[in-house]
Amino acid sequence: MAGRGKLIAVIGDEDTCTGFLLGGIGELNQNRKPNFLVVEKDTSITEIEETFKSFLARKDIGIILINQFIAEMIRHAIDAHMQSIPAVLEIPSKEHPYDASKDSILRRAKGMFSAEDFR
Q: Would you kindly state where each structural domain of the chain is located, as residue ranges?
């Protein structure tokens, strides 16, 4: 890993993963594990959570992008992640718009500041 940056990982629906893969983010680590998971209707919540936790444990991943509607399925695992790296960013999907009130990272950041800080 010396001299290389960190990867972006994606957990998302087919359209989201395809877009990022076409953008060049797809890689396999030395154990031949990909840095993405395409979530389909028959993908179990256990598989999603295990993949998320495996991305957290990988030293080559710096950012995890996850569709917000999928993040809702494993909210407890996302809320338990307190480290800044890898950063977990919730993104919209084609059929599920972004809702800031559901984003746990944004809620956590809002709790760090008060209205007085912005004056």
A: 7-109
